[in-house]
Write a structure and sequence with these properties.
The protein is of the alpha+beta class and about 325 residues long. It is about 55% helix and about 20% strand. The strands form 4 sheets. The chain has a 3-stranded antiparallel sheet with strand order 3-2-5. It starts with a helix and ends in a 6-residue tail after the last strand.
């Protein structure tokens, strides 16, 4: 009985192993390569799959999701013979599990080496300044070359990114000094522009203020002149309306004499010729109120005037 039990146990184990090898469950976004006696048979997709046990074998399981692979820094020589270290990141996706398994031995290593060689070809035609400012151009050129080369491997390169571009330390120091000088230059230019704009605005303000002051003074002078003209017209009209006689005019002439002599700078002042007549009239008026003349006269005793005319101007010493 014991040999029969052992045989049954062996059969049960074999059946269990056969069931395990027959039923294959492939996860989502994955694929499996099936070989029969070492030759490719088919590709298993996601889900439950049945294979022939002990005849069909699973060669490789491939992840169909997009993969991100960072590559270590690679030294690259620019067109101006400067060595820079460039870090790259590749975003790729397997689109054909069979080609990725049989067309290339290790597609990760192949992509890395292809990235390095392509990057050296691209950077070799650029100087350092262009390399530092043309990341998008480098990414596009690198992606185009990689996508074309990896297409036959069943791989699609979705994106290529340059993580860092590190020039030599001496070049970094020179670049920092240059950037500092550029910043100082821009600051000086902005300061000069600010001072210039401030001076322009100040000059504009002073100009506007001077114009407004001049307009105000002109307006004020016009108003004063208009007021004086109106006053003169009023006085003139009042004089003509009052019909003054010779006596009043003589008295007004005498009142104007002190005003003519006002001021320390008056060395010479003019006496109108009419003032003689005014004085004559004023003397005649005063004579009417004085004692009668010994000679007598029919006109109220007015003194006889001399035949000598009054001078038209007199030179007076400056008033103290």
């Amino acid at each position: 009985m014991q040999p029969i039990i052992i045989v049954l146990i062996i059969l049960v184990v074999l059946v269990f192993i056969a069931l395990i090898k027959t039923i294959q469950v492939i996860p989502q976004a994955s694929a499996a390569i099936v070989e029969r006696f070492g030759r490719y048979t088919r590709t298993l997709n996601a889900g439950l799959n049945i294979v022939v046990p002990f005849i069909d074998t699973i060669r490789n399981r491939v992840d169909l999701r997009e993969q991100v692979v960072p590559f270590p820094p690679q030294p690259v020589i620019t067109q101006d013979n400067l060595v820079v270290n460039i870090d790259t990141v590749i975003y790729y996706q397997v689109t054909d599990a069979r080609a990725a398994t049989y067309e290339v031995a290790s597609y990760i290593q192949a992509i890395e080496q292809l990235t390095v060689t392509t990057l050296r070809n691209i950077i070799g035609g650029m100087d350092l300044e262009r390399t530092l400012t043309s990341r998008e151009e480098i990414n596009a050129a690198l992606r185009g070359v990689l996508d074309e080369a990896t297409g036959r491997w069943g791989i699609r390169v979705n994106r290529v990114e340059l993580k860092a571009i590190e020039p030599p330390t001496s070049i970094q120091d020179s670049m920092e000094k240059q950037m500092r000088a550029d910043r100082d230059k821009r600051a000086a230019i902005l300061t000069a522009e600010g001072v210039r704009q401030s001076e322009i605005l100040t000059a504009e303000g002073e100009k506007q203020a001077a114009i407004l002051r001049a307009e105000g003074e002109a307006r004020s002078a016009a108003l004063r002149a208009e007021g004086e003209a109106q006053a003169i017209r009023t006085v003139f009209e009042s004089i003509h309306a009052g019909d003054p006689d010779q006596k009043l005019l003589s008295y007004q002439y005498l009142q104007m004499l002190p005003k003519i002599a006002e001021g320390d700078a008056n060395k010479l002042w003019i006496v109108p010729s009419e003032i003689g007549d005014a004085l004559k009239g004023l003397g005649g008026a005063l004579g009417n109120f004085g004692p009668p003349s010994p000679t007598g006269g029919g006109d109220g005793g007015a003194p006889k005037t001399s035949t000598r005319k009054a001078p038209t101007y007199r030179e007076q010493p400056p008033l103290e």
